[in-house]
Amino acid sequence: MAAALIGAAVLAAGSLAGIGPAEANAPGHPGIPSPPTTVFTEDFENGQGAAVTTLPDYTGAAPLAETYTADPAWLTSCNGLLVSEQAPASPPSGVYCGSYWAANKQMAAALGTWAGGDATTNHSLTAYTSGDPGAGRTELQTVRPIPLSSDSRFLTFSVDAAAQNCFANHPLLAFYLLDAGSARAAFSSPIDPCQNPGTVIGGTSVGTYASNGSVLFTGDSAGIRLVNEQASGGGNDGAIDNVRLLDATPQLDQGFGPTQLPVGAPTTLTFTITNTSELAAKDGWSFTARLPAGLRLDGGSAATSCGSGTATADAANGSVTVRGDLGAGQQDCTATVRVTSITGGTYQVCGSAITDAVGLDLPGCASVTFTAPVFDARSHGVRLTSPLLGIGPLAASAHSCTPLPGDDSHSVLSAGLGSLGGLGVLTTDASGTVDADGARTAAAHAQVSGINLLGGLISADLVGTSAQARQPLTGTGPGAITLTGATALTNLRVAGVAVAADTAPNTTIGLPLVGSLVVNQQTTIAGGKGITVTALSLTLLTGVHVTIAQSTAALLTTTDTCPAS
Ligand SMILES: [Ca+2]
Ligand SMILES: [Ca+2]
């Protein structure tokens, strides 16, 4: 492709040169190119009337008041003239245009029509080459540096161009950026206005063309040089208007897919580098994205579709570095990396987390939510259900209804239970932990010493319980829950009879005329996601219910009721 043709609607012709901040794209539309931003325009209209002006005598609009120079070959032989249809019937004296003077005016008019302006009054820089100009000579070059507002931008050019006699040699327009004295090419092949014109008006091909390359520019000012690479004056009959210096910096976007998933499951973080709509090549952009703590990078997962691209993920410091090229005509390319979280939560990445961005506009924010199992760990030294006694839970610990790890523990030296009796030391703890591999454990322990109830009917040196719910993390999310419960009994005696330390779960001992006692009570809760273990569960005929050393551990989902029952 010799040059990218871009529609006039995309780049409306400005009537004045504009020098503004270089903010090309807005994030949020990955893969949809935005128009480049015009940094500078020359329309050759400042102070112009019917008279013909030579290029070196022209001064552009304020504030820059740009002036121009050219190689002598492009300032003679019917070249280097600012012409409109209103120009006099004959060319200025000393300018040899042969019988083609009217054709110069036709090209200016056609360019005016193409740009949506006035065909009669529009001026363009015409060059009908009544002699051979020689190859590689400068047809136009800025004299005053054009200030740039920011570093590390991709700059390119567009121009409205007209040509006649395309059956003969074509004008070949090559744009260079002048960077502190050196000329840097913004093309790989020059613009040929005879190829793929926007339209043909009365035999004149016209269109808006962009360079097919660009320059990654770091200086604070730039110059423009237009070289016509066509050596022959046989044909090579053209005119230009609306020379534009464009900020054509690609847009970086980022997004997660999926955006909601369980802990441990992978989501893909996609970086999309979207070209600007002139689709010039953009070589050598790069960036590093730093992920928030809590997100885990799959270090081997980084990949990119970008030309000459490299994508590397550093799992240890949570960063992704991508560099590459957009080829001429390429709309976008992507880099991807797989990410997960073990602790859960919502994580946001924003443009502020992009460091070392070169030749890219920063992305907006994107977020992903990892849903983690909810801890429900609780333990009680003693609980009484009795409106008459009015004694609540004693020595309770809880780490419940949160996906975050943590623990809680308590100790009470003694507890009086009124007419029921008394207890010695009560200790409880409850915790939720997340292992390095993401496995979760909800655990609870309760222990009570010195038990003496109902005047010695029930006594023990020590009873205790433990409950645990454990859930490994798989590559697709939380795995199956394993429940563990245990009761410890030291010297438990009921009505004078010793109770075995390894009493089977849910063993009921009748207490004639008093009630009943369940030893080592184990109950599955929350649909199999948890377990409650109670050392002694005493129900009296009076309606009083007492539990001693009760531990509960469960791992719930966010839609379960918490605490579980
Ligand atoms: Ca013009
Ligand atoms: Ca010619």
UniProtKB/TrEMBL annotation:
Residues 1-24 form the signal peptide. Keywords: Signal. It holds the Pfam family DUF7933. Residues 250-360 form the DUF7933 domain. InterPro entries: DUF7933 (IPR057693). This is Choice-of-anchor P family protein. It comes from Streptomyces polygonati.
